[in-house]
């Protein structure tokens, strides 16, 4: 039996996964990892969510474009993008909140409220 005769929309799963994947990729491009965020939330908390929000906005543009180009797959594209957006937002919010509440030492050193990490001061 040919795939077209099964009556299943086999492209929907791929569209769902691609939409979810692009959200993760865009937010990762805008933010450090949630683990690093949690470890250094004391210095990063003021700007962290700004970049998460920027990443979500960029992701929405890509998801909207995918829906425009593939209107037959609008539901799985929107579902994949939305699910990934909610999950990533929650992950970074949790990292920020947990890190701010933690008394553990950070892995980065910041002087005078600046954002200069240890590696930036390395002369090599």
Write the H/E string, N to C: HHHH
- Using only CA atoms, what is the Rg? 19 Å
Secondary structural class: mainly alpha
Strand content range: under 5%
Helix content: 55-70%
Number of DSSP strands? 0
In the predicted model, the low-confidence regions spanning at least 5 consecutive residues are: 114-124
The largest β sheet comes out as: none
- From the spread of the alpha carbons, the general shape counts as elongated
Query: What is the mean predicted local confidence, pLDDT?
Result: 80
Determine the N-to-C terminus distance.
63 Å
Number of domains: 1
**Total of helices:** 4
Describe the secondary structure blueprint for this structure.
Layout: H1 11-30, H2 34-39, H3 41-69, H4 74-101
Helix pairs in contact: 1-3, 1-4, 3-4
Description:
The protein has 124 residues and is mainly alpha-helical. It has one domain. Helices cover 67% and strands 0% of the residues. It contains four helices and no strands. The longest helix has 29 residues. The protein is elongated. It starts with 10 loop residues before the first helix and ends in a 23-residue tail after the last helix. The C terminus is likely disordered.
Concise description?
By secondary structure, this protein is mainly alpha-helical. It is built from 4 helices and no strands.
Supply database-style keywords.
124 residues, elongated, mainly alpha
């Amino acid at each position: 039996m040919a795939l077209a005769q099964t009556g299943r929309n086999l492209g929907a799963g791929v569209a769902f996964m691609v939409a979810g994947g692009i959200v993760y990729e865009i937010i990762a491009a805008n933010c450090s990892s949630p683990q690093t965020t949690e470890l250094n939330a004391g210095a990063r908390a003021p700007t962290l969510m700004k970049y998460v929000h920027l990443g979500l906005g960029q992701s929405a543009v890509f998801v909207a474009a995918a829906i425009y180009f593939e209107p037959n797959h609008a539901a799985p594209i929107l579902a994949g993008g939305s699910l990934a957006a909610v999950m990533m937002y929650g992950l970074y919010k949790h990292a920020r909140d947990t890190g701010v509440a933690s008394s553990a030492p950070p892995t980065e050193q910041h002087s005078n409220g600046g954002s200069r990490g240890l590696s930036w001061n390395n002369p090599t």
